[in-house]
Amino acid sequence: MSQLLDFRCWKHARTGTKAAPFQSKLNVLGCLLDLCLVVGGSVVHENKPGRIDRLVELLDQTQGNGNLTKPQGQVIHVLKRYACGVFGVKFLHQICAEVSTLSGPLFTRAPSDVRSFCEYAARILPAAKPRKLNCGFEMKPLLLFSDGCWESGFAGIRAVMVDTAGRASFVCVGTAPKRLLELWKVQIGWYIICQSELYAMVLSRWQCQGILWDRRSICWANNDAVRYCTIRGLSPSKAMHSLVREFYLIDASAPTYNWGERVPSSSDISDGPPRRALSLLGLNSKTPLNLLASC
């Protein structure tokens, strides 16, 4: 390897920690890479030891002060962004988006907002587990359609999951719990269609997490507000912001390679009576959407 780098006239370390011999586990670009399973087509990688501890320490200091300055925000953002890049998962992306907004020049930082974020981030970061990448994973994606309705005090939720690899597909239906509706009404009033639709997406993602685990997936929504906040990881609505956090948090325990996209209502098979989706997919029964307790 040194001869190759010499041939390219690239300067490189020949001694010391950056010139380690070949080994099964190594630090490379701040990432701990485990090649013990590479013969079987898998690679395990995780954050460099100490990075998460340093982040939690910075968050504890910031939480105690109740103030997040721009320089502090930039340090935390860079460390989290690198951690996010190492893992390639989304739950860290959402934290990066929040700290970037909190430390931005256009945001009025209330001490309560800073302390709430620091407490949330310090609690979530230790959930970052080593990530196993397998070159033999299924390439065909799972399609997850979700929809919600709000009519005369009734908040219906529906979801359809289609496995393009030819495995099981599901049609799920349910209703948003009354206690959640009452909370939304207190926070934002009676017009809660966006919250209902986002809740349907989060709940379906949570209920299908075992199937979506390490699979490519596309979440389809016919509501742009829902699509944008799940892509950005942020929302000006307190209710939707809490749901977005839950949407990203699922990736900590059951990661998926997800893409968010819009589908017109006329093409959304989850929009309308469940029998429409059952007929299109050739299914005979529907599955209930169970309550997401943490919401």
Describe this structure in words.
- This protein is of the alpha/beta class and 295 residues long.
- It has two domains: 1-136, no CATH class; 142-288, Nucleotidyltransferase, domain 5 (2-Layer Sandwich).
- It has eleven helices and ten strands.
- It has helices spanning 2-7, 51-65, 70-87, 91-102, 111-124, 178-188, 193-207, 209-212, 224-232, 238-253, 274-281, and strands at residues 25-28, 31-34, 42-47, 131-134, 142-151, 154-163, 170-175, 216-221, 257-262, 287-288.
- The strands form two sheets. It has a six-stranded mixed β-sheet, sandwiched between helices. It has a four-stranded antiparallel β-sheet with strand order 1-2-3-4.
- Helix 3 (70-87) runs antiparallel to helix 4 (91-102).
- The longest helix has 18 residues, at 70-87.
- The termini are far apart.
